[in-house]
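Example for tutorial group B:
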């Protein structure tokens, strides 16, 4: 799909992978709606990209619908490119030392990471289906979701996070198959260790230790490299129904 003059919406666009994606798509000519839980963060990235900033909670369908409506009102159409980067990183053992139950944390993690991704996909598909095709293939749109290598390599303390990202990975193929008749592609990116807010708080020695386990290149990924892959997915019409790891060939150890 040609990105130039196309409307895009990026969730979690106020920071990290989402912000880098919004900037990359804007540089390629897209008009970008930056959606984030923080309106201030969304507006800051939108100011850089010439787009609009929208506050929305992806785990709340009403909030997401309002965000898509604002995108249509202000940019003139529903987005043809939707990238879901909104998510939370949580860590907790299933059975902590104090014996406390962790059901609430598990539910919250799935609500944001999995239900939030599905909510955005569901609304995006409905909005894209009403658009006219843009090429001879009948393409109407592209939806890119974000999982994590933890869906395959989940470490101790990542049961909730890995389960939420595993759900995102698992919905990719059935969603792509169902939406194929509408000319809507669905892809998922599974990042490894990246320089984001989730990793920013690590002590230097912990970061060095993590990077030592990365085969090549032996460093954390840059958000711009995630964004580069998103652009390649959007532009390559045969990429559909697949989960792509972007991870320097890392396989996470149990702990």
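The residue assignment follows.
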């Amino acid at each position: 799909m040609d990105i130039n003059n196309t409307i895009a919406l990026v969730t979690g666009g106020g920071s990290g992978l989402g912000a880098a994606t919004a900037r990359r798509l804007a540089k390629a000519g897209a008009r970008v709606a930056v959606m984030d839980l923080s309106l201030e963060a969304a507006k800051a990235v939108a100011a850089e990209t010439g787009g609009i900033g929208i506050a929305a909670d992806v785990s709340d369908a009403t909030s997401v619908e309002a965000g898509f409506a604002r995108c249509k009102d202000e940019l003139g159409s529903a987005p043809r490119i939707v990238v879901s980067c909104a998510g939370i990183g949580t860590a907790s053992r299933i059975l902590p030392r104090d014996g406390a139950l962790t059901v609430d944390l598990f539910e919250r993690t799935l609500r944001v990471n999995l239900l939030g991704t599905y909510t955005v996909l569901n609304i995006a598909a409905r909005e894209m289906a009403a658009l006219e095709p843009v090429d001879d293939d009948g393409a109407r749109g592209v939806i890119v979701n974000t999982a994590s290598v933890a869906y395959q390599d989940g470490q101790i303390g990542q049961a909730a996070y890995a389960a939420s990202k595993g759900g995102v990975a698992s919905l990719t193929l059935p969603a792509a198959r169902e939406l194929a008749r509408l000319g809507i592609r669905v892809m998922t990116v599974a990042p490894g260790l990246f320089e984001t807010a989730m990793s920013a708080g690590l002590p230097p020695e912990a970061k060095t230790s993590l990077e030592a386990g990365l085969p090549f290149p032996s460093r954390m990924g840059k958000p711009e490299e995630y964004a580069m892959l998103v652009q390649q997915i959007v532009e390559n019409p045969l990429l559909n129904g697949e989960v792509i790891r972007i991870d320097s060939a890392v396989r996470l150890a149990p702990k």
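The CA atoms of residues 189 and 239 lie 12 Å apart. Compare this with the pattern of hydrophobic and polar residues in the output above.
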